[in-house]
TrEMBL record:
Keyword RNA-binding among UniProt keywords: no
Record key words, sorted: Membrane, Transmembrane, Transmembrane helix
Residues in DUF418 domain copies: 208-371
Superkingdom in the source lineage: Bacteria
PANTHER family (alphabetical): INNER MEMBRANE PROTEIN
Membrane-traversing stretches: 104-135, 142-164, 184-207, 228-246, 266-284, 291-313, 333-353
Name this polypeptide is given: DUF418 domain-containing protein
Keyword Transmembrane (UniProt): yes
Organism whose genome encodes this protein: Nannocystis punicea
Length: 377
């Protein structure tokens, strides 16, 4: 199982899957949608706009991807265990996982080329290829390496954010070919950066999978409560300096921006873990109960690759000047509402696919790429 599950013939039947991982993916795709919907937002011109932007910085920006990266590591550890139970040795299992990583790189390149500049699939592919040995690392080494990657990711993004020129978006490029070239060049630059930023959560996800924190949340309630409370609180406090920079209250020099962005990124890791713990607590409380909303969210999580790409299709149609051309045209609150609407639409479509007994089209394509036509049935 990967962060985009149901692409492996060894995956358990959907009815047998643990609730928390799929529910977390479905819910956290909302955070991704709200983050990406910022491409529609113009300048913050009034108190309401600034308040919405501050909430966005504290609760959305840099808070969703750590959780997805952790889920990716969690799923990689589960898939390795499944391969071993099926009789594969370490070398065979490692090659299968690396092959999956190479295909994620291909999917990520295609995603950037055709749809959206903010691809994360390529970063996951790099992690699958380069950090595969971490699946066999001792817990202490795993967590020590994760801590080092947290610092590296925060510093890297802090510096990179200062180097990105203002208005560096495809909205200034009038044609689809120029826009695609812009996205591909951006992908080549940001994929290694995103991999560095995601490496720490990826390793923590492997550690969490060894303890089955998400499959058996009822056995870890005190730890999950502490993680949810402390993680989200740390993320909010860590966002305050960047809120001040954006509001022009802490200068506009390089040092304040780099420091505030690095702190925001570092504390965002805690926020992502806090969100994951909060969803796990909800799953434990729900138990075997399923309503229409939970069922639809789980369906979205089970088809998260397709839903993620569907969001990008929506941003392409709404944002690019040769389509709707709405980039920078909305107030922040309206942009957030558009993000919620796009996410809600993907949830509905995923539930319709569930009712018809179908996996997501992107999941089906990835499975076919990995295993061929005979094993994609």
């Amino acid at each position: 199982m990967s962060v985009f599950p149901a692409d492996s013939p060894e995956a358990p039947p959907l009815a047998a899957r643990a609730l928390a991982p799929d529910l977390a993916r479905g819910v956290m795709l909302l955070v991704i949608a709200l983050a990406h919907a910022r491409v529609l937002s113009g300048p913050d011109t009034g108190p309401t706009d600034q308040a919405v932007a501050a909430l966005h910085t504290a609760f959305v920006d840099g808070r969703g991807y750590p959780m997805f990266a952790a889920l990716f590591g969690y799923g990689m550890a589960q898939l390795l265990a499944r391969h071993v139970r099926a009789g594969a040795d370490w070398l065979a299992a490692r090659e299968r996982l690396r092959r999956r990583g190479r295909w994620l790189l291909v999917f990520g390149f295609g995603h950037a080329l055709l749809l959206f500049h903010g691809d994360i699939l390529g970063a996951y592919g790099l992690l699958s290829v380069l950090l595969i040995a971490a699946l066999r690392s001792p817990d202490r080494s795993l967590l020590a390496a994760a801590g080092a990657w947290f610092v590296a990711g925060a510093l890297a993004f802090g510096g990179a954010a200062r180097l990105i020129p203002a208005g560096a978006d495809a909205e200034s490029l009038p044609g689809p070919l120029l826009s695609a070239a812009f996205r591909v060049l951006g992908w080549l630059a940001t994929t290694p950066l995103f991999a560095v930023m995601a490496a720490g959560p990826f390793l923590v996800g492997i550690w969490a999978a060894r303890r089955r924190l998400l499959e058996r949340p009822e056995q870890h309630l005190p730890a999950l409560r502490r993680t949810a409370l402390a993680g989200i609180a740390v993320a909010v406090v860590g966002a305050l300096p960047l809120v001040a920079v954006h509001a022009g209250r802490w200068g506009d020099g390089a040092a304040p921006q780099i420091a505030a962005t690095a702190l925001h990124t570092l504390t965002g890791y805690a926020g992502g873990f806090g969100y994951a713990a909060l969803v796990a607590l909800a799953a434990a409380r729900l138990g075997e109960r399923r309503g229409l909303v939970v069922t639809a969210l789980v369906a979205c999580g089970q088809r998260s690759l397709s839903c993620y790409l569907a969001q990008s299709l929506a941003w392409q149609l709404l944002f690019e000047p040769y389509w709707a051309g709405l980039g920078g045209q909305f107030r922040p609150l309206t942009a957030a509402a558009a993000g919620f609407g796009v996410w809600a639409l993907t949830v509905v479509l995923a539930d319709l696919a569930r009712r018809r007994g179908r996996q997501g089209p992107a999941e089906a394509l990835l499975r076919r790429a990995l295993h061929g036509p005979a094993r994609s049935e």
